[in-house]
Amino acid sequence: MPSTKSLLVQVHDVNVQFQQHIALQNVSLTVERGEIITLIGPNGAGKSTLVRVVLGLLKPQTGHVFRQNGIRIGYMPQRLSINPVLPLTVARFLNLGNAKKNAILQQMLEEVGAANVLKRPIQNISGGEMQRVLLARALLRSPDLLVLDEPIQGVDITGQYELYELIAQIRKQRGCGILMVSHDLHLVMSATDYVICLNQGICCSGHPETVTQHPAYLKLFGARAAQDLAIYTHHHNKDIKNG
Predict the structure, then answer these.
(1) Superfamily of domain 1-72+184-243 in the CATH hierarchy
(2) What is the DSSP string of 134-203?
(3) Which of 1, 121, 171, 217 is the most exposed place for a label (fewest CB within 10 A)?
(4) What is the pLDDT of residue 157?
């Protein structure tokens, strides 16, 4: 059992059912300060449902959810649709429901590598810049726990690498816990401490390298996924050593 000082969220043996559909079955999850936990699984596996339980937006039928008293949670949604005719700058978007001075907004954008977009119309920024803006908005609350739902949506391969490196840097600098949802197994496995493979229930969990060798993981994603991951990890580590 983690110490209460480091424990941010604990979901224990929760079950969620929508009419006849079982979304989560006997699922447990612990997120501590300073660690990155990643949820993976096929479409319809219950990842978004579990995130809603963690955020307190959905109450499970059974099970227990603990959140540290006074916890601040920053949430980055999977996607966000904005009316293209709406006159909305990045600064105004960041201030929706949470007014801050421009100096603070600029500082937050600099932290996520999007320093030049503050006054631009949000419809005119790129997919990668949009994800960084959404991340900046999540960080405005100075979160103890950062919840990232598919943080690299609409980002090219180079931007994906950069975003995962940025997430790791945020964890290191801020010491917050991070719960991340991802389909991008090749990239995310090297950017996380602990992986939970979900398919209504937990199929397997543990260190990334352990999970990729687990029969349940291989059944869901195929042996090719593990081979591709091994190739990616080899080249990624090589680049780090040569960097």
Answers:
(1) P-loop containing nucleotide triphosphate hydrolases (3.40.50.300)
(2) HHHHHHTT--SEEEEESTTTT--HHHHHHHHHHHHHHHHHH--EEEEE-S-HHHHGGG-SEEEEEESEEE
(3) 1
(4) 82
